[in-house]
Structures are given as C-alpha cells and as structure tokens.
Amino acid sequence: MARELESDLTDCMVIMDKILVVDGVTKEYPGRVAVSKLSFEVKKGSIHGFLGPNGAGKSTTMKMIAGLLPVSSGSITLFGETVQPDNLTLKNKIGLLPENAPVYLDQTVEQYLKLVSKLHGVKHVKDQVDKVMTDLSLLDVRKRLIGNLSKGYKQRVGLAQAIVYDAPFLILDEPTNGLDPQTVVELREFIKKLSAEKTILFSSHVLPEVEQLCDQITIIHQGKIRATGDLHEIHQKFRQGLVMRIGIGQQESLPDLSSFGKYDITHENIVGKEKQYHLTFQDDRDARAEIAKYLMNKGLNLYTLQVESPELEDIFLHVTELKK
User: Fold this and answer.
1) By the 8 A CB rule, do 23 and 77 touch?
2) Residue 57, SS3?
3) CB crowding 210-233: b at 16 or more within 10 Å, else e
4) Higher-pLDDT residue of 15, 321
5) What local confidence, expressed as pLDDT, does residue 1 receive?
6) pTM of the shown model
7) In whole angstroms, what is the distance from residue 300 CA to residue 47 CA?
8) DSSP 3-state assignment of 205?
9) In its keyword annotation, does this UniProt entry include Transport (predicted)?
10) Which of 29, 60, 62, 295 is 20 to 30 Å from 219 at the Cα level?
11) Residues 97-112: tens digit of each pLDDT
12) What does the pLDDT average to over 54-83?
C-alpha cells in the first residue's frame, strides 16, 4: 500500500513538473498541413527555446498553445487544463508577445497598459502598471504615444503587456529581434529574472542567445519535431565525434596526433598567449590524458585541453537538413 501511494505521489509530481504538454498536435488548412503530430513538453520554471526556420510552423504552434487557434487533432494541456479558444480560465495564465507586438499606437504607454490590466481583471491596476513600467524602464515614456516610440521601446511595451497581469506562463516570439545591442542585453537579463517565477516558451533566430537563456529546446522543421529535450542532452545526442580544444604556446606548432584517432583541424586562432586548435575526432574516445602526456613529452607548453559540445548552430543546421 505504501509503495503504491509513493508511486502515485511520484507520478503526480512528474505531471505537476510539466507545465505544458503538446501531444500529437496537427493543424490542417484546406490543401495543406501546417504542423503534423507535434509532441513536446515544457517543464515548470524553464526557459524553453522553440526553434525552426521561417515557415517551419512555429507561429502556428504558438498560436495554438495560446488558445488563438484550435488544433485539428491531438491535444495541448497547460496547467492540467486543455487549451481551447473558448477556455477563458487559461487566458489570464498566458502572457503572449507575438513577433509583432499587439499595441495600440494611438494610446500612451500608460493608457495601454492600464487597458490590458483591466481586461485581465488586475485588482490594483495603477500599482501593477507602475511596477511593470519601472521593471522595463518605461517610466520616462509613460505619457508618450506608442506610435511615436522607437522599435526598442515598442518591444518593451509589447513585453510589458504580456506580463502586466502576472501570467505564470509566457510565450515570447522573437523578443529581441532587430533591437540595438544595449536593449538586447537589457531584455535578456530581464527575461532571465522572469524565469525565477515564470515558465517561458522562447522563440529566437539568434542561436547563441538561445544557448545563453534556455535549458530546454525544441526544434521544428517542415511542421514536424526534429529534436526536443534538455539542451545538454540535445548536445550529447547530436555530437558527431569528439570536439577537442588544445591551446599551446603562440610560437609552437601542434604535432601529428593521428595515433590517437582520425581527426580534422576545424579552427585555429590566437587567444591571449595561446595558439588554440579545434580538432574533431571521428570517434568519441576521450584521449585527453594520453594527448596531454604526449604534448608535454614533446616539450610544448600546454595551456588548454578541453572537450567541447557541438554548437547549437551545427545541431540546428543538421536536424533541419540545411547543412550541406
């Protein structure tokens, strides 16, 4: 009996850990299938990267998750409830920032955020709007028309409307696209802070940004899931051979290492006092200990010897079949 109870509690905790479950979702339009049999999960408290080339089906999927589009088949469950366009109880639990922020250009920043707050039943509208404007550095433009703002400020307003009613699940579609570097850094840091209290589905074409922010990813291509899971697990799954970085003295040359396996030197550059080589071995055998001993016996100055994961860009190009 005790074991059965423990098992039930474990199952319950696993279910609660999954904020979003997309299960076999297909979306069909007359004459075409936009997405087919999509299945992936988003864990509580994660920033989940949602990646894919243009036309892959990302926007369609995010609209279905937000309850703006009905699924043709399959199911989407958020906080244990089925997502449907008529499920009004979920509306206040989802904060959506689409690629083109849904702002009213003829309203001031403050007017617009107060309107959104009231529509979502926020109790202390002024306090909440002031807090969000402070968090997103919008106080100085609170009385300005949104239509007269720069793209960076409009994007801040778009993010503000997604969080002003304190939704626990956020869908952010290209939140830093086209912004100046300073604004990009500020918004990334803010999104990191948000993840302490919220779960975020995050779409971006900037793959290094995804690696910085996300702990889970899903890659979609031609309407189908190509990879999904924890970022570390994805790196390990798609590692082709072993990538090693070796740093020796600037005036030194790397000797032949073919006795440790077939390899290619994919990159060579100067980093500080080092000359660094990036090698890709054809097999996964980690021969660092033997290589270190070999290089030191050759009298070389060994500064760096690391095994590295493949770049997310390489994985993305591989699974979307864009890498020739």
Assistant:
1) yes
2) coil
3) bbebbebbbbbbebebbbbeebee
4) 321
5) 53
6) 0.79
7) 43
8) coil
9) yes
10) 29
11) 998 877 899 999 999 9
12) 96
